[in-house]
Amino acid sequence: MTESRNPRPAADDRDDFLSLDELQARQDAKLAALGRRLAHSPQWQAHFAAAGASPLDLKDRASLAALPLLEKSHLRNLYPYPLLTVPLEQVVRFCATSGTTGLPVLFGFTLKDWEHTLVRQLARIYRTVGVRPGDRVYQGYGYGLWVGGSSMDEALKAYGAVNFPVGPGRGELMVQWLKDHRHTVTTMSPLWLMTLIQQARKAGIDPRRDWALRLGIFGGQSVSATFRNEMEALMPEGFMAHNIYGTTEAGGPVLGISCPHSHGEDEMHLVNDDSVLTEVLEPQTLRPVAPGEVGEIVITTLDKEASPVLRWRTRDLVRRSAHPYRCACGRHAFARIGRIIGRSDDMLKVRGVLVYPSQIEDVIAGVEGLAKDAWQIYIDNERSGLDHMEVAIERVAGSACASDDLAREVRSRLKARLGLSCEVRCHEDGTLPRYEAKATRVLRRSKETLNPTP
Ligand SMILES: [Zn+2]
Q: pLDDT tens digits for 309-329?
């Protein structure tokens, strides 16, 4: 640990309860320092110059708003080490985005980034949900180039937790181990826990009675509150499923986490806003949205030495809380946001009505007899210019309801929720695509073939 005053990140909560004034003063000072740092980088100089600006124009939060945003195309053009800003020899490891299209984009970490900044950021996440040193953690995020698993390993070690770095999969083993090792905390995709619950029951294990899990830190996939409530009801008494949010560009899963008070309202705190500054901007006008409104998350890393980002467009859409700075937990400086409701790329305008895939997910999650993890939106572009939307759902095997009834029910709920009539087709169990990481819920088909094209 490079900072001697912080030998045990588990205990050091002095900054968790900053006032908003203190937080903003810290952000202003760090932004000015970032501008001075980026001024030494030819790549960053060129990026600013293309927008008629200079890194030295970055002085505080007010000046940030006029500076250029950063998009995926910028990074791709700077292959193989975009905006690295430190000599390659100072990088101790790389992480990469999933790269569903094209080559993965590499983000470097210096020793300080990895062992100090990231560890401190994740310790704050752990404190917010109530992880304790000595907790037995079933670490289920993936490894390799993905930042999820390896970042958790590093931070859990520093925090004093007992880590079981299992990674994804190994369901048969884990339903038994959760009983035998009495894991108290888990980090994984929420869809995977649901799979484990079902597997456990088949193996004669009742998670509610036989497991000891108290906390889940669920990322990689945003699920509806209904899905979460259902999952919690199948788990040991008092089990809380917390949503975590982060990105590789931000330096890890460090941006958002729910606290025990915001959990009920399905909201997270931007709990590291003094280290990764978050703007929530209207995707077209790029103006900040008001509390209660939906916008895109745009991030600026304030502490990261290697591969910092300035105003990176995550494309993730979120609703700002109606009361962002009031939470009973006392984290008044760290604004609250809702769960991630979709991608700005996925935002649909169907016959003039704005539709977010998450609204459709909410409807599907509320109907008994449907697979919660398998559904799809197909958009057909018709010549008239009006989009035609079809929602594909899946009936779980053994459901008491007929496919036609399920389709009719979803159609009428969608009509009530969106004010939009759309076609709903119900398929049999196992027909629709499953996604291991981020799901692609919206598929566009051309009129000629009507074949789904991702
Ligand atoms: Zn709170």
A: 999 999 999 999 999 999 999
